[in-house]
Specification:
By secondary structure, the chain is of the alpha+beta class. The protein has helices at about 10-20, 25-35, 45-55, 65-70, 80-90, 90-100, 190-200, 225-230, 265-280, 285-290, 310-315, 320-330, 340-365, 375-380; strands at about 125-135, 145-150, 155-165, 180-185, 205-210, 240-245, 255-260, 295-300. It has 2 domains: about 10-105 and about 335-380, no CATH class; about 185-315, no CATH class. Strands 3-2-1-4-5-8-7-6 form an 8-stranded mixed sheet, sandwiched between helices. The protein is elongated and about 70 Å long.
Length: about 375
């Protein structure tokens, strides 16, 4: 029986063809158009450039090691300094690739619909948003903020923005389609951001505290006293009240305040956290803040046909985006920014997001894999390698 020695180079080329089959149409042309591949010095084509960049971004190799590996593999003949310059020029290209890969993945069965039985929001698109700081280790390291949106129940990334850390969290940063339902934590409890969603036909489920989002009695300018209304809640009791928001620019927004009392252990934990934050910020802790720690407050613009219990159940799913950030920081190492130069840092972050999107595409590809191990139609569209 004859045995054929496996050719590592051939296997790498075959693996790359699978990755390339996932890339958006015209991706190599866009490398030239967006300035990532303006000169051929050291690289034969955009394909070679991306393969070398993925050595640095996906495998975590330093620039010097990346340049050495690229030379040994015959992909490019460049120095680490030249590679850094190339990385800086790739920011817009990486961003374009990420946006293209964010396009909704094709369903396994084109005729299948997401079942709506047992889902309080039916077929409406549920979007969970949050932000996360990415910084270089050390007190003087640069910092950036990821503004991220995932869809439920599939947990796919729907939208992402890389901004300076000084750009705060707001729902105004995200695009809205009619029928979208945004789920967000207290940092997004701002009347202007909620108005942005409502004006474009969406709804919100947003957690709040006593000061982040002033509430008013419906059709009046009288403030709604949250603590006065929730004090009568017993353990496990959920209640809601009609309220309104009054954005500075725009019409009042009708909604509901949904509230539930925490368990004794959860309330004690929240009070301890409030005391720590007070000490850290050197500000006086108000008695009302400690009392509010006994409850969870959620504001929603959803119609009353969605019960308060269902609203709070949907809000519980917000934790999924926290897990997504943990995955990004552990699997693709996006939480440890290694670049001092701001332009290189932005490009590195966009490249890391590209790696995350490619991983998501590969997982989806594997879930519908054919017995022969690849998608024939997708590979037929891949341009032949030189």
């Amino acid at each position: 029986m004859e045995h054929c020695d496996e050719n590592p180079s051939l296997k790498l080329d075959e693996d790359w063809q699978v990755i390339e089959s996932l890339m958006p149409q015209g991706w190599m042309e866009m490398a030239r158009e967006l300035g990532a591949f303006t000169r051929t010095r050291g690289f034969a084509d955009p394909r070679a450039l991306l393969r070398v960049m993925l050595i640095h971004l996906a495998e975590g190799c330093g620039l010097r090691e990346t340049a050495a590996r690229a030379g040994l593999a015959g992909l490019a003949n460049v120095s680490d300094v030249a590679l850094l310059k190339r990385l800086k020029s790739c920011e817009q290209w990486f961003e374009w690739l990420v946006l293209q890969l964010l396009e909704p993945l094709k369903p396994r069965d084109p005729g299948a619909q997401v079942p709506t039985v047992g889902r309080p929001l039916g077929a409406r698109r549920l979007r969970v948003v949050d932000g996360s700081i990415v910084h270089e280790p050390g007190p003087s390291g640069s910092q950036w903020r990821l503004h991220y949106a995932i869809g439920l129940p599939r947990l796919e990334c729907q939208e992402v923005h890389v901004k300076p850390h000084t750009d705060g969290e707001t729902l105004k940063r995200f695009s809205v389609h009619e029928g979208d339902v945004f789920v967000a934590d207290r940092g997004y409890a701002q009347a202007s951001g909620i108005a942005h969603v409502v004006e474009q036909g969406g709804d919100v489920i947003v957690r709040l505290n006593l000061v982040t989002l002033p509430l008013y009695l419906p059709d009046t300018a009288q403030r709604f006293d949250i603590l006065e209304h929730v004090r009568g809640l017993g353990m496990g009791e959920i209640c809601s009240w009609a309220v309104s928001l009054r954005p500075k620019d725009g019409k009042p927004i009708a909604g509901r305040l949904c509230a539930v009392r925490k368990s004794a252990a959860a309330a004690d934990k929240a009070r301890k956290r409030a005391r720590r934050e007070s000490q850290r910020g050197s500000h006086k802790l108000r008695p009302e803040t400690l009392e509010a720690a006994e409850y969870v407050f959620v504001f929603t613009t959803l119609a009353e046909e969605v019960t308060a219990e269902q609203v709070l159940s949907v809000y519980r799913m917000r934790w999924q985006i926290e897990l997504e950030f943990k995955r990004l920081k552990s699997l693709v190492n996006i939480g440890h920014l290694k670049k001092h130069d701001p332009q290189a840092a932005r490009s590195w972050l966009q490249g890391k997001l590209l790696v995350a999107m490619l991983v998501a595409r590969l997982i989806d590809h594997a879930e519908r894999i054919s017995p022969w191990g690849y998608d024939i139609r997708a590979l037929q569209q891949v341009q032949p390698m030189a």
